[in-house]
Specification:
Layout (H helix, E strand, L loop, with lengths): L6 H17 L5 H26 L27
Length: about 80
């Protein structure tokens, strides 16, 4: 994240990029798979930023039944190992 960007700006950027990628018309199966992979990646980025902003977990079938919560802030990333 650039020092000048905040979560709202990141959401806008990822949303705009999803629109751009969705409008592209793939010509081959490989291009189609690449486009689908890129869209899944961008949606994951949006889910991540939303989680960091709000603690809201994505509703993707993997997090059903888990409560939304405030994300932990780790000052020392080595403590996660």
């Amino acid at each position: 994240m650039k020092p000048t960007e905040n979560y709202e700006q990141l959401l806008q950027r990822f949303t705009k990029r999803i629109e751009q990628v969705s409008k592209q018309r793939p010509m081959t199966t490989v291009e189609s798979e690449k486009q689908a992979e890129q869209l899944n990646y961008l949606r994951g980025c949006i889910d991540t930023v939303t989680y960091l902003m709000t603690g809201k977990l994505p509703n993707d079938g993997n997090h059903d039944g888990m409560k939304d919560h405030k994300p932990n802030r780790h000052s020392n990333l080595d403590a996660l190992d």
